[in-house]
Amino acid sequence: MEDHSAVPQGESLFDAPLMAEQERMVEAVLFASATPVTLRDLQARMPPGCNPAEALAHLRKTYEGRGVQVVRIGDTWAMRTARDLGFLMQKETVETRKLSRAAIETLAIIAYHQPVTRAEIEEIRGVSVSRGTIDQLLEMEWIRLGRRKMTPGRPVTFVVTPQFLDHFGLESARDLPGLKELRAAGLLENRPPPGALELGDLDEVDEEQPELFED
Question: pTM of the full predicted structure?
Answer without folding.
Answer: 0.48
